[in-house]
Design brief:
With 554 residues, the protein is α+β, with helices and mostly antiparallel strands. It has eleven helices and 24 strands.
Length: 554
């Protein structure tokens, strides 16, 4: 119905206008066809039937499209424009030439059917040109060493391979990255130039890759960091409380906090560009990533100022997010004739101790009503569920001993958690559950994550209604009764290792692994044996077939 409605849009057009209903690229290799289609201008791509129908509903009158007071909804009809068709053909032709088909030609063909137009871009690709010789010339010996040691071995430019301009762009980008990571702050991509020679060659091309010196013909220079300035800026002028800076002798950073709310040391561990170090663009990227991941800043900027002949001053400027936020959410539930609701509230403070630490307090209450129960509204409550939890997260590892945690591959975290749950079900079951834990998370590599929870303390008190418990026993559910109608105290530890979790959202093939170890109860058992706690076990003969221990107490 949508397709029919959108096609009827042609009746709203003037006599000299045609609605583009189909566009195709012919004669292109399958591996390049999708990419070539991207060079067709949006103005002549067929409309989405849904969006065009919506546009027509609001922007037509008396069998014509409106010329004024046009509503910005849906998608305006794509009307044939011969100039845009020719431009798209030229763009596809140039794209094919960058892929080694230097003699490619693209001719557009338009078919008309009443007020509709179908466009075919017919390509004659010709024979591809293959790379014959590659001549790399670098004027600076130091740059030449970096180029041939770190770029050439992994280069996509190979003799005998079809020419592809993307390989040249990739090689230029790799050299730029390696130069910047090696201290060459003022190196530019434009210093690499490429020439392609096909004269006298039959479907072959010789490449000349040349890396020149600076504009003044001097050799490229390695830069070193001189002074480092770190400024926490006030989000609003009226929030500015301080403009005085100080010099920290340990980190060698000039620090200014206009908010008077942040401490330098927790932030400085992720300011990887330090005084005396060689400039490295990789350290700049790491500083951006980690400072943003701390979740305390809405803006992070790193600027440089040249000083002397090969010195740089670094300026870190960060703007904090709002320190506190509150989120309320709720939902309505309906299941098996029962209905109820859940309501929750989350309060967050993003800078508790001045180091972008985050504390979250979460509360949730849920209730379920059974309309089949007699009495008033309170008598119809089937169960109540109340939960409250507190998480305190530090963007670093807090340990009693010194740990080198630079956060190169990811932001390490220390998290203290505590949560309480109270659950009551009408005339059946009540449960109180309290759990506390300390967790460390750190990255061994980009794709390797460790999570250690050295302390997990649990307390649970489950209590079954006597009549309900007896009915379960009578039905043979004694194991369920023993598992839930009891008090439990546990002390344990957990460890988890995850490999390639960052690729879970990618489309490529990869291997994923997650392994976990949970040790619970063993620690208390070991402690009991060492301390020689007294043990008292009560045995009870139940009515369900076998004799079993109902509870064992220390």
């Amino acid at each position: 119905m949508l397709i029919v409605a959108s096609c009827r849009s042609a009746k709203y057009l003037d006599d000299h206008q045609y609605l583009v209903t189909d566009v195709d690229v012919n004669g292109v290799d399958p591996e390049l066809k999708e990419a070539a289609g991207l060079y067709i201008a949006n103005e002549i791509r067929p409309n989405s039937p849904l969006y065009l129908t919506i546009y027509n509903i609001f922007n037509t009158r008396d069998g014509r499209y409106k010329t004024e007071k046009i509503k910005n909804v849906g998608e305006a009809p794509r009307i044939l424009d011969s100039a845009v068709v020719e431009l798209s053909a030229n763009q596809i032709e140039r794209f094919l030439q960058t892929k080694g088909f230097f003699n490619a030609k693209v001719q557009p063909q338009i078919e008309f059917n009443k007020k509709k137009a179908k466009i075919d871009f017919n390509a004659n690709m010709g024979n591809p040109y293959m790379v014959r010789n590659i001549d790399r010339r670098v004027e600076d010996p130091q740059v030449d060493s970096i180029y041939h040691e770190k770029v050439v071995p992994i280069s996509a430019l190979k003799s005998g391979k079809r020419y592809d301009a993307a390989d040249l762009y990739l090689e230029r980008e790799r050299l730029y990255t390696q130069m910047r990571e090696s201290g060459y702050y003022d190196y530019l991509r434009q210093y690499m130039r490429t020439g392609v020679d096909t004269i006298g060659l039959q479907n072959q091309a010789d490449l000349l890759v040349q890396v020149s010196n600076r504009e003044d013909s001097t050799k490229h220079k390695i830069y070193y960091i001189d002074s480092v300035y770190f400024t926490v800026e006030a989000a609003e002028p009226e929030l500015k409380k301080n403009s005085q800076g100080r010099y920290d002798t340990l980190t060698k950073i000039h620090y200014t906090d206009q908010t008077d709310k942040f401490k330098l040391r927790p932030l400085a561990r992720y300011a990887f560009l330090r005084s005396g170090h060689k400039f490295n663009s990789r350290n700049e990227e790491l500083a951006y990533d980690r400072l943003y991941e701390m979740n305390g800043f809405r803006s992070v900027k790193i600027n440089y100022q040249t000083k002397d002949s090969n010195k740089l001053d670094v300026f870190y400027n960060v703007v904090p997010r709002s320190a506190m936020s509150n989120q309320i959410e709720g939902e309505f539930t309906f299941s098996s004739g029962m209905s109820g609701f859940n309501v929750g509230n989350t309060f967050s403070h993003r800078n508790v101790f001045g180091g972008s630490e985050t504390i979250e307090v979460k509360m949730r209450y849920g209730v379920l009503f059974d309309s089949r129960l007699p009495g008033n509204l309170t008598d119809k409550i089937f169960n109540n569920d109340f939960q409250v939890g507190v998480n305190l997260s530090f963007p670093r590892l807090l340990t009693p001993f010194r740990v080198r945690s630079v956060g190169i591959y990811g932001l390490p975290r220390t998290t203290f958690s505590s949560s309480l749950q109270l659950f009551f079900q009408d005339q059946t079951y009540a449960n109180r559950y309290w759990i506390n834990s300390l967790n460390y998370t750190w990255y061994e590599a980009v794709n390797k994550i460790h999570s250690l929870t050295p302390v997990v303390i649990e307390y649970r008190h489950g209590q079954l209604n006597e009549q309900f418990k007896q009915s379960l026993i009578d039905q043979g559910y004694g194991l369920y009764v023993r598992s839930n109608d009891r008090k439990y105290f546990g002390l344990g530890a957990q460890y988890a290792y995850t490999y390639n979790s960052t690729k879970l959202t990618s489309k490529e093939n990869f291997s994923y692994f997650r392994g976990a170890l949970d040790v619970s109860g063993n620690l208390l058992g070991l402690l009991g044996n060492v301390m020689k706690f007294k043990t008292k076990c009560r045995w009870r003969k139940a009515d369900f077939r076998s004799t079993v221990p109902s509870i064992c107490q220390r």
